Amino acid sequence: MEVYYTFCLLAAISVFLGFLNQYVLRTQTTIAITAGALALSLLVTGLGKLEIVELRDWAAQLLPLMNLQDILLKGMLGFLLFAGSLHIDLLMLRNQKLEITLLAIFGTLISTFAVGYMLHAFLGFIGMPVNLVYCLLFGALISPTDPIAVLAIIKSMKAPEQVSIQVEGESLFNDGFGMVVFAVIYALAFQGTDPSLPAISHLFMMEALGGIAMGLAIGGLFHWLICATDDHSLELLLTLVIPTAGFAAANLLGVSGALAMVVAGIIIGNFTREKGFSRVSQHELDNFWTITEEFLNGLLFLLVGLLLITIDFQPIDYLLIAAAIVIVLLGRTLAVGVPFMFLKRFKSYHPYTERILIWGGLRGGLALALAMSIPPGYIIAGNHDLRHLWGVMTYGVVLFSIVVQGSTIAPLIRRSRAAAYPEGDPATPIPD
């Protein structure tokens, strides 16, 4: 019951922070809640050190009972990916299919290996040698981008459509693809999987193609069920079954539940929306999943803030966080720059496209959930625990990306809008 009460308390704090934000910070909700969660965590930690109030022991006892890894990876993730993919416009996505494919697949792979190798070299340089496969694991968990915070800013400021679609499509698909890459490297690192190319390829294809096939099956089934009823409440309840039972079924079958939710969400959002929902129901569908997405995302970062209370930071952790931020930004630059070196040979792009994609590549809840899925007890580089180091570094990168990058991308979008609409008329944009 204590776990339930804690969730109730965090949910209330999340809603309160969102309410307070509209009068104080007036920034994007995710940024405000993340900053609020950090401030609360630091306040509680500081009060504990002053022996005014001590919650670390309470949090340390509660977190194992809550099983955050399962809550995030096997619960919230399905809702967040399904909700995000519902808003993808398939017609617009088709116009950017090559860009999104290269960014989501090859960009994720480039970032994974670039970050992994740079981290491996840096740790060796400072006298903390770590096996390369563990460094690649960090590269895999930190490479997928989070669409929620930056997309809200991009849409509210009416960024050029070409840029908005690329950011949205890439971030949703590289979440699913990034989880597949992480699963493969995780199996190599901790499960003794044969590192041969056939074994890796088989595991990869099972996760990726199996997830896409599962998403098509789930989307097709619920398209038929929703179109077969005129009950508005039942239509919404049927969509709720997809990220619950559908996501669970995909995970139990050993395929990528993340990719399944993205594919199913695109089907429901593009085909079922028009054929199975009335105009009133479409509005209710959008409102329901938008609210659900914002609520769960706020709750997620408060849960992570609760986790922060239990972390005992060491001096080396701050150096590693700073290094991880720089390395991840360099990896992101390569992940965007290399595909666009190829793409620019065939097509012209908005001058701010690459800069927005690089600086707008925010990391979020997925990276934190993957970091927490690393088993404890793996001692590396002397007496350092792998899960602790990777978790601390991931938290630092996520915090920097959402608070710093997320809050400073608005001027970049304004400049991109001025470049796209030099006459100040959105109706006459520069051609893509």
Outline the structure in words.
The structure is a single chain. The chain is mainly alpha-helical and 432 residues long. The protein has one domain (68-293, 320-420): Na+/H+ antiporter like fold (Up-down Bundle), CATH 1.20.1530.20. The protein has helices at 2-21, 29-49, 56-66, 68-85, 90-95, 97-125, 132-142, 147-156, 161-190, 197-227, 232-252, 257-276, 279-310, 315-343, 353-359, 365-372, 386-420, and strands at residues 379-380, 384-385. Strands 1-2 form a two-stranded antiparallel ribbon. Strand 1 (379-380) and strand 2 form a beta hairpin. The longest helix is centred in the last third of the chain and has 35 residues, at 386-420. It is globular. The model is unreliable at 427-432 (pLDDT under 50).
Question: Notable features of this structure?
Answer:
432 residues, mainly alpha, Na+/H+ antiporter like fold, 17 helices, 2 strands, 1% strand, globular, disordered C terminus
Distance between the termini: 56 Å
Query: Mind telling me the CATH class?
Result: Mainly Alpha
Helix content: over 70%
Uncertain runs with pLDDT below 50, 5 residues or more?
A: 427-432
What order do the helices and strands follow?
A: HHHHHHHHHHHHHHHHEEH
Shape category: globular
Number of helices: 17
In short:
By secondary structure, the protein is mostly helical. Helices cover 78% and strands 1% of the residues.
Question: What is this structure's SSE topology?
Answer:
Layout: H1 2-21, H2 29-49, H3 56-66, H4 68-85, H5 90-95, H6 97-125, H7 132-142, H8 147-156, H9 161-190, H10 197-227, H11 232-252, H12 257-276, H13 279-310, H14 315-343, H15 353-359, H16 365-372, E1 379-380, E2 384-385, H17 386-420
Antiparallel strand pairs: 1-2
Helix pairs in contact: 1-2, 1-13, 2-13, 2-17, 3-13, 4-11, 4-12, 4-13, 4-16, 6-7, 6-9, 6-14, 7-9, 8-9, 8-17, 9-10, 9-12, 10-11, 10-12, 11-12, 14-15, 14-17, 15-17, 16-17
